[in-house]
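[recover] target loaded
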């Protein structure tokens, strides 16, 4: 039973060379843009409508709760990423702090998270792309713009499939090249959100915030079978805040990990939290939540309602152009988690091969194909909640790993130390556990089923092929 407790070394092993080693090509502006690009996306462009439908105007509190939990988790990630600047993120930290079995479970959960996030954002992107095309008279047939289980059933969400595969192709070009493109697209995306706020604020009506909390605070299922309340919305909107963990997957590719990772993780969270609160307040002030809650493109919808038809087109265009940065960030993260697990022997070694451009091509293609398939057939809200379950597990594990190593390995040099770790760590764990209990029951069941399958894969394959199997 030693496989349960054997731990990954804190320092990078010497065998990570040649075709199984990633190139250090990223600096803090690239990493911050990677974080902002991952965080600001479907959450504010699309899920603000879903969240408002669950919590009403109190969705602002949902943003605050989700943001606070993510802030605690981000501080834990910053310490672990600078302590272990290796690919793999929470998988690597769990493996080192709590042993191989826990590491596998978290890695398997991350595979679920990142792949599903890519699909979620692709579906959100499709809604804006279709709206943009329709406004120009070029809309796709309904059967090709939605999957069979969406609110308006179709055959396949073709735009979502196309954008996912396009981003996959871009990532195959090279890490630094794709990061540079991401940097400029993120700037464009932030400018578009600033334009929305400027146009929406003159339409601000405080009456739209009454009643402020129509569905209460705690998550509950109403008579229509819909889970509502501030915490129910927070459990979904949580998706809008995470993304900084994708930065930690790039730890091995950072030029100066101790500086660049800290700035990237903490900086991106602070920037995005401020942007989210301002945009949410402007949206709710400009339109009653019941009006835009069902729209697949709520920000553009609000602008059209107030006669800003050209600005609505531009907002939709900004989403069409810039939302792929989120897909790019998470697909990047997914490939690095797969890469790390393969390099450790828990998955086939062929998946950790890096091409001449420094890209783990096999896992990038595998991730892209799986994400495209999910995006083509599943609805947005369902996919987002499934992604949240995997992320919450990763955040909990990272916080626990940080606390375990603080107690057991006080000798380690920590470039960044989580402030008040004995308080921040438990708050991160408790907050994530509470958000997990607020997820839909089917989401929780799917999460455990996924990890049940993962446990079988580990026992049948990874347990005996691990690099640490002989230890």
């Amino acid at each position: 039973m030693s496989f349960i407790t054997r731990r990954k070394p804190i320092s990078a092993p010497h065998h990570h060379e040649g075709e199984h080693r990633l190139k250090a090509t990223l600096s803090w502006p690239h990493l911050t843009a990677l974080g902002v690009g991952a965080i600001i996306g479907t959450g504010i462009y699309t899920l603000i409508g879903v969240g408002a439908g669950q919590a009403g105007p109190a969705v602002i509190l949902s943003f605050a709760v989700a943001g606070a939990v993510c802030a605690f988790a981000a501080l834990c990630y910053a310490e672990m990423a600078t302590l272990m600047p290796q690919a793999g993120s929470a998988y690597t930290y769990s493996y080192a702090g709590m042993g191989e079995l826990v590491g596998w479970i978290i890695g398997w959960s991350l595979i679920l998270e990142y792949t599903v996030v890519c699909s979620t954002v692709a579906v959100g992107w499709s809604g804006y792309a279709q709206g943009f095309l329709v406004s120009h008279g070029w809309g796709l047939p309904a059967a090709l713009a939605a999957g069979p289980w969406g609110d308006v059933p179709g055959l396949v969400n073709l735009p979502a499939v196309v954008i996912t595969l396009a981003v996959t192709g871009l990532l195959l070009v090279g890490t630094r090249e794709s990061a540079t493109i991401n940097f400029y697209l993120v700037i464009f995306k932030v400018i578009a959100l600033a334009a929305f706020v400027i146009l929406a604020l003159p339409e601000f009506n405080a009456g739209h915030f009454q009643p402020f909390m129509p569905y209460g605070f705690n998550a509950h299922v109403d008579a229509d079978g819909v889970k509502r309340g501030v915490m129910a919305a927070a459990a979904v909107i949580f998706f809008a805040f995470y993304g900084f963990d994708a930065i930690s997957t790039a730890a091995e590719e950072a030029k100066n990990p101790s500086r660049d990772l800290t700035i990237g993780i903490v900086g991106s969270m602070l920037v995005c939290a401020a942007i989210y609160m301002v945009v949410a307040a402007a949206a709710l002030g400009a339109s009653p939540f019941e009006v835009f809650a069902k729209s697949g493109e709520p920000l553009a919808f609000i602008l059209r309602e107030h006669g800003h038809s050209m600005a609505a087109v531009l907002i939709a265009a900004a989403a069409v152009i810039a939302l792929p940065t989120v897909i790019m960030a998470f697909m990047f993260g997914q490939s690095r988690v797969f890469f790390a697990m393969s390099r450790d022997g828990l998955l086939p070694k062929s998946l950790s091969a890096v091409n001449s451009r420094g890209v783990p091509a096999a896992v990038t293609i595998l991730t892209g194909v799986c994400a495209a398939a999910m995006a083509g057939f599943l609805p947005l809200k369902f996919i987002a909640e499934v992604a949240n379950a995997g992320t919450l597990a990763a955040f909990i594990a990272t916080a626990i790993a940080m606390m375990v190593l603080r107690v057991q390995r006080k000798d380690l040099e920590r470039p960044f130390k989580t402030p008040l770790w004995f308080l921040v760590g438990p708050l991160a764990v408790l907050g994530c556990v509470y958000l997990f209990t607020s997820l839909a029951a089917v989401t929780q069941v799917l999460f455990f089923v996924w990890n049940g399958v993962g446990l079988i894969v580990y026992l049948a394959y990874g347990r005996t092929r691990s690099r640490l199997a002989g230890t």
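[recover] notes: The chain has one domain: 26-463.
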